[in-house]
Specification:
Length: 308
């Protein structure tokens, strides 16, 4: 592979984050001196802006068409290898309900959940719960609900962040809030990178804490001694199981909560993880001894496409 398109932007709610990721990836790959990097900013759900003579595409799109199998299917039709999972796995991972079902079918532990329709007067699960749009990322539209009074606003926030569905459905995901600690593991071609604990102010890792706060701390689990090494091993095993349950390949980030008694729950899988200054996959890759540019290069080396 010599000529590489870095796809970024898009029209989802995560466009600005994607632009940041794409710029970072493009500059990193160019710094290696072995690629001709073509930055491609997408302003629609099509590849009209991408040259057709590229050898591979690095997907730095987040959310929407860039992560729900749309761009993956388009690249498959063109026969252009791309980073991250294929179209089928991307569709599952982008839909939190489909992800829950895939995890449960494969005996991967995940928090109890239900659905709530527009107009629901109360949570279908005992409080506290987390209310999420089923098909968005970067914590857009997500709220923790601890009191009955907070329910209407949380439901409205999740619904406002949702794109209209072809079937007209308006249901949000309601998940039992798992007290404890938050972790993440990057998986690349079935190999796990060092696990990170996310330590956010007030215990809530929302959009602000992900992208703008300098108070959020990221601690490598293995640095906590023997207990950390044992936990990292357990997280890695579950991460690979979740990765395989959804049918992933290439790079995917698996997010967890671990309860106070040590029970592991998979929250979701991110098939196009960020590469901003606060992003976790590059941090994990660099912990293995790679530079930021080498992390990008390793992910690029996993690029594949499927027959349409």
């Amino acid at each position: 592979m010599r000529k590489i398109a870095v796809l970024m932007g898009g029209v989802s709610s995560e466009r600005e984050v994607s632009l940041d990721s794409g710029r970072n990836v493009g500059e990193a790959l160019a710094s290696l001196g072995k690629y001709e990097v073509i930055p491609v900013v997408l302003d629609s759900e099509s590849l009209d802006a991408m040259p057709r003579d590229v050898d591979a595409a690095y997907i730095a799109l987040h959310g929407g068409w860039g992560e729900d199998g749309g761009v993956q299917s388009a690249l498959d039709r063109l026969g252009i290898p791309y980073t991250g999972p294929g179209a089928a796995a991307s569709r599952i991972a982008m839909d939190k309900v489909k992800t829950k079902l895939a995890l449960e079918m494969n005996a991967v532990p995940t928090a109890p959940w239900s659905l709530a329709s527009e107009g629901a007067e109360s949570s279908p699960l005992p409080l506290p719960v987390v209310v999420k749009p089923p098909c968005d990322g970067s914590s857009v539209g997500i709220s923790k609900v601890s009191t009955a009074e907070a329910w209407p606003k949380a439901l409205a926030t999740a619904l406002a962040a949702m794109k209209p569905r072809p079937d007209g459905g308006r249901e949000v995901l309601v998940e039992e809030f798992v007290p404890g600690r938050e972790y993440t593991v990057a998986v690349v071609d079935g190999e796990t990178w060092p696990a990170l604990e996310i330590v956010a102010k007030n215990g809530w890792y929302g959009y602000e804490e992900k992208y703008h706060s300098n108070e959020t701390r990221y601690d490598f689990v293995r640095d906590a001694g023997a207990d950390g090494a044992e936990l990292e091993k357990r997280l890695a095993e579950v991460a690979v199981k979740a990765y395989r349950a959804v049918g992933c390949r290439g790079v995917t980030r698996v997010d967890f909560r671990v309860s106070p008694v040590g029970r592991i729950y998979v929250l979701e899988l991110n098939t196009s993880p960020g590469f901003t200054g606060h992003s976790l996959v590059p941090k994990a890759g660099m912990k293995t001894g790679l530079s930021f540019a080498e992390v990008c290069d390793r992910i690029l080396s996993s690029a594949k496409c499927d027959k349409p």
